[in-house]
Amino acid sequence: MEPIAIVGIDCRFPGAPDTRAFWDLLMRSGDGVGEVPRLRWDAKEFHSPAGAPGRTNTTEGGFVSDPDAFDNEFFTISPREAAAMDPQQRLLLQCAWRAVEDAGLAPQRLAGSSTGVFVGIMGNEWAQLHLTDYDNVTAQIGSGNGYCMTANRISYHLDLKGPSLAVDTACSSSLVAVHLAANALLSEECDVALAGGVNVALTPALSIFYTQAGLSAPDGRCKPFSSEADGIGRGEGVGVVVLRRLKDALADGQRVYAVIRGTAVNQDGRSNGITAPNRWAQQDVLAAAYRRAGIEPSEVTFTEGHGTGTALGDMMEIRALGHHHAARTGKPLALGSVKGNLGHTEGAAGIAGLIKVALSLHNRVVPASRFAAKENPGLKLREHGIRLLKAPLRLPADGVVAGLSSFGMGGTNAHAVLESAPPAAARPKARPQEQPSAAPAGIGAALFTLTAPAVPALRRNLLAQAQAAERRRVPVGALAWNSNQVKTGHRYRFAVGASEPAELVARLRAAADDPDLLARLAAAPTGRARTAFLYTGQGSQYPAMTAGLYRDSALYRSFLDEADAALLPHTGRSVRDLVLGGDEDVHLTRWTQPALFAVEYALGRTLAELGVRPDVLLGHSVGEYAAAVLAEALPLDAAARLIAARGALMQELPAGGGMLAVRAARETLEERVAGEPLVGVAAVNGPLATVLSGDLAVLERIEEELATQGVRTRRLQVSHAFHSPLMEPMLERFAALAGEAGGGVPRIPVYSTVRGRLLDAEAGEAMDAAYWTEHISAPVLFADASLALLDDGASHVVEIGPRPVLSGMLRTLGGARTASGPAHVHPVPAEEAGGRELADALAELYRGGVDPRWDAVYEERDRVPLPLAPYAFSDQHRYWAAHTPALGGAPAPRAEPALRPVASAREPASERPEPQATAVAVLEVARGRAEGPVARAAYEVVGAVGGYQPEELTPELRLYEDLGFDSVMVMELKNRLEKQLTGLGELTVQDLLPRLSTVGDLVGFLHEIGAAAPGQEERTA
């Protein structure tokens, strides 16, 4: 068969809350078995050492910790529905999410795809406890139980459209699920498949069965193939793997843990008992798997056995293996079983073994098998060409073949053949860029990103990622690039720049402990960004401007070099070398203007290449040249020719001109200079921020007159009187050059500082020769253009220039116009700024809704798959059933609001939310609370239907997206509203649906139709 790659893994087993802990447990031959937790049943009450009828012979087993914890808010599941759900569904939801992340995929990106879900499961005790309590069966109880829902829940919440099914073949269920998933991939029913298994023991029923059948180990431990083997010990667990066709995984540059070469499933038919193992069927399924994998038995280095530790089971398995491997006397087959560490995890047994084999191949070592030291002599392992793994087995780098068996109690057997990942996957190469570009990638720093559905969740995951990064020796670029690929898609975004791992850890921790930052994020969840680029004019230059960025960023270097090459034929000297060399000539007009153009062109193109596409542009004076190139109104060569000529021609003008900033209105100054032919208004930067330009002698006289009137002025340090009548002598020569260069209508909207408004592209208003000629002496109408831009509703203003100049002016203008203006972003906030500062600017834009082109941020060496710490789900909410009378406990469980989750006292103090984070959460739910009897009644009804406390609800909460409502809950909402409120008449679902966007919308609708609280009409009368 075509090979199938295992590209993602997540699991949770006794003594091992995650994949990393699971591998650690295996490598140290750890024991995950312990006493039956009181959360399950009172083991002592059902215990009888002799195994009396109705009793078990053990009080021990392998149990996962905190199976009642569930982050229902993450999956937008109401508390009432969460309380009704089988915990196996809850565990699988979280495990599947983390497995997809481990595959290097953002789970939201699978939405709408043909991804399949295949789940092995054999226990359904939650349903037995709930569905027999007839008085309390609800719609949520119905959908919260049933084998099908274990798979369907995953497909529903991840919006997957491929096959979705649960498999029950008893103990072989989850390996059969893997077999079905692999076949679905091979038949192209799906391109990605999630395969897994789950088992949670809620009652002692199977323990009693194992005891009465003589299969239960008194100490609750499986001892596979050991002389001490005395039966089965029960275990719990959940595991999910992400599968892809190997060729697809390699093409996408995914990390591959191991490769499935072949699988087979069969049945032993009418044998020596429906629950008894059958040697012949087992050896047949082994042969079929070897044949399908295209290998000989002698090629198999080790096999993960079914290994239950029962006398008959172990004997049948050894004989079946021996049929194929007895000739291997010189190099026997290595054999082990994870059940020695965990117990028999029943429906999850196959996936537990698969994950062990995949991790062994990935890490090039097979852990020693627990209890292997005292092998059972009756099995005659040597004669069958088999040896137990009494010590870890080191593996070569590639070409290792392994086997995996899982046999069902009812006779359905499964076997899989795996192989180590090919070298290209074992040492992943960089993924191909998202969109190939001629520009080299890399900004000289990393940008770590993280998203979460709520601010407290964001804080929790910031700390989890900081802790994980602190203990790893991994380049910060690789960590960040993987975060960009995987940790995305939620409502609240966070990003931070870093140049090395220690800095990243420090900044993640600082963000998690910054209540002001968290409060700002809570107040403004990410929306759609509308970005404006503001290009700075003359006066912002300085020697060695952007030298740090040129040093750090290959991307910026390429664009500054490109601008320099375009300018060189017209300047005769490298503008780049002048700028980076710290030459004071940068202050000479002939060099200032082309130097600013080169820097601003490079900055604008760098951001555009990074995926920051401006919605609108504005340039102050010479800043319009670089803006025009980005807007595609001028080609680079033409703009370079014009700006070089502009600077040179202005430099040739005679001295004697100057500029004067005046704190006065434009209209006032226009009247004053109306009779002055050598002075004019050069710029209007605000209502009381006007610049005059012209003859120095005249300006001095005007300055003195204004001083006597108490008007503040400031002389600007310039070489010439820009934007004044003194520019007249150069216009004719410049106009001739501009006519040759041409110019067109901008493709990106431009707010012109020549016109003081948006250029009318539909009318064909072009930035042509006439425009650029007028541009020289016309006043810079920055205030008018900026106010028009602010009215356009930009969310982010990015200042493109060597230092921030225009942002302060824009804030002053916007202060009187809007209560909260756009966010201001500066790629080069200071003279020494480099790649880290550019990363911080990109971080600010990402937090505001911009989606960068991540591959352009990093050099090729950083774009490699790398596992990150998985999503840290909240364990504060707990959902569990009270014990039924049959178990000697309280009355049967109810999935009612009374089972609301509460913060767990068992949560480690180090993981509890800090006070400031809790305060943020409270702020999130305390804004704008509606009052009045109708509102209070509506809140009570919504709370009752969803299982929320009324005080948790706020007007802006969305019923579907935030509170997890569905059609069944809407019907219940309607019925409860009719009973709770008077004056409604007969309320139809059709009436409600258009008004169920938010809780506030529902309250408003009820007021509109004249609803009254119970008894209100009587009180009014």
Automatic annotation (TrEMBL):
Segments forming domain Ketosynthase family 3 (KS3): 1-420
UniProt keyword Acyltransferase present: yes
Domain of life: Bacteria
Region: Disordered, residue numbers: 890-917
Low complexity composition-biased segments: 890-901
Cross-referenced InterPro entries: Ac_transferase_dom_sf, ACP-like_sf, Acyl_transferase_dom, Acyl_Trfase/lysoPLipase, Ketoacyl_synth_AS, Ketoacyl_synth_C, Ketoacyl_synth_N, Malonyl_transacylase_ACP-bd
Domain Carrier: 932-1010
Keywords: Acyltransferase, Antibiotic biosynthesis, Phosphopantetheine, Phosphoprotein, Transferase
Name of this chain's protein: Acyltransferase domain-containing protein
